[in-house]
Amino acid sequence: MQMLDEVVFRRSFLFGVSEYLADKQVEYLVIGFGFVYKQTQTKLKAVLVLRGERDHVAITPELQDLIFRCLRDGDYTEILIIHNHPAGIVREVKNFLFGDDHLPSGADRAIAYKLKAQLTELNRMHRVDANIRFFLVEGDSAREFTGASLKNVADLIRV
Hints:
By secondary structure, this protein is α+β, with helices and mostly antiparallel strands. α2 packs parallel to α4. A hairpin with a 2-residue loop joins β5 (131-138) and β6 (141-145). The chain has a six-stranded mixed sheet with strand order 1-3-2-4-5-6. The protein has a single domain, classed as 3-Layer(aba) Sandwich (Cytidine Deaminase, domain 2). The model has no long low-confidence stretch (mean pLDDT 86). The N and C termini lie far apart (38 Å). The chain has helices at residues 10-21, 61-72, 89-98, 106-126, 150-158, and strands at 2-9, 28-37, 41-51, 78-84, 131-138, 141-145. The chain is built from five helices and six strands; from the N terminus they run βαββαβααββα.
């Protein structure tokens, strides 16, 4: 994890990360560690960049431990997880069929759902008010997404 020289607001951070990832030919995870400021803004103090492969990047168990340790200990209260989908045939077909709307993959949604579930438990057990937000970069812009999917909702209903 790299400490930033100065605190950066979420919108500026997302713009910079989107520009950085715009032309990358492999998948990346960029994790921003920060805190909520004035209820609607996020100030980021640290960043971690992980380079993946052409069509894959993973949140490792060690990274999950780091994220939740930072949230539990109160070092940071909001974490931004930014992931990119490089240009390629899969993205082109998806955009042709569904429009250019930053659609996260099933794997993206599954990890977001899993981390949000763990976060809910952390907030309840440790009485903290922490948050994780997920963003997808395609081209030169980032959009937020949740872990919700029809499969996740169906799994909840079946329980």
